[in-house]
């Protein structure tokens, strides 16, 4: 828990832009800071006690109840001061393309379908559909993840076993197919791509009316989902809506890119978000996140870069990004990249830092 004593920041859009990117800081439990809201302080991102005088802005006080890592807004346009909300990407010059780095090494996939960069970041291609139910592990603690897992479920016909997570919430992305997902005795039909939310401890089963391919994420994650002998009847009625569909009206701009959050804490998820996004032909500048991310390439082609290595990506691939690892995703096709992301711990995919 934290305490934040904030001044009115409704007029913060007129504040001076101190930095195009947020400031990463590590705070001690009990540490008190005063964040500069005017953008004129000589001690960015903190108030210097004098520069805001006569500007109409007042610093925002924040007290950390526990040790934490934070991104303090540098552009001063945030609506969630003192913290970054991603608004810097929509400022003039806030989202920049970058030239391709020189002297990087191209990494190809190994026999197991993994293209591993020189960090825990990697690209993995899911297996082809077999003639029976299958569940393949793509992201897990044993592959370097700390906060989430992802599996690839294929079901040509019939029903899957009853699956469940005892350690985290489960989020599905239906890549293709139609059918029904049953959650603790409650049935939800679907036809085509959509997101599905399952509470921690709830059993779920998929039944295919056409061949199904589904990405199954677990946050926080383990190395395996559990199988149960039978379906339970303990559906959490506090969260009745479990299917999320693409809604173009819900898109949020992030420079020339856009994204839509499909599932987050509004639907019952805990410090987790599933989003869909579009990337035009471009190469983002190198950046980092405080969350861990598994990014599914829905369509298009591209290249994932870090400081020393690069790997090609295509439809169906999953890119795993550890926390705080510098990276850049490049779209190399005219039609653009469509992506589906799952982030944890975090709820805003628009927040990044250098």
UniProtKB/TrEMBL annotation:
<keyword id="KW-0408">Iron</keyword>
<feature type="domain" description="Iron-binding zinc finger CDGSH type">
    <location>
        <begin position="59"/>
        <end position="94"/>
    </location>
</feature>
<protein>
    <submittedName>
        <fullName>Mannose-6-phosphate isomerase-like protein (Cupin superfamily)</fullName>
    </submittedName>
</protein>
<dbReference type="InterPro" id="IPR052950">
    <property type="entry name" value="CISD"/>
</dbReference>
<dbReference type="InterPro" id="IPR011051">
    <property type="entry name" value="RmlC_Cupin_sf"/>
</dbReference>
<dbReference type="GO" id="GO:0016853">
    <property type="term" value="F:isomerase activity"/>
</dbReference>
<dbReference type="GO" id="GO:0005737">
    <property type="term" value="C:cytoplasm"/>
</dbReference>
<dbReference type="InterPro" id="IPR014710">
    <property type="entry name" value="RmlC-like_jellyroll"/>
</dbReference>
<dbReference type="InterPro" id="IPR018967">
    <property type="entry name" value="FeS-contain_CDGSH-typ"/>
</dbReference>
<dbReference type="GO" id="GO:0046872">
    <property type="term" value="F:metal ion binding"/>
</dbReference>
<keyword id="KW-0411">Iron-sulfur</keyword>
<feature type="domain" description="Iron-binding zinc finger CDGSH type">
    <location>
        <begin position="20"/>
        <end position="58"/>
    </location>
</feature>
<keyword id="KW-0479">Metal-binding</keyword>
<keyword id="KW-0001">2Fe-2S</keyword>
<keyword id="KW-0413">Isomerase</keyword>
<dbReference type="GO" id="GO:0051537">
    <property type="term" value="F:2 iron, 2 sulfur cluster binding"/>
</dbReference>
<dbReference type="Pfam" id="PF07883">
    <property type="entry name" value="Cupin_2"/>
</dbReference>
<dbReference type="InterPro" id="IPR013096">
    <property type="entry name" value="Cupin_2"/>
</dbReference>
<dbReference type="InterPro" id="IPR042216">
    <property type="entry name" value="MitoNEET_CISD"/>
</dbReference>
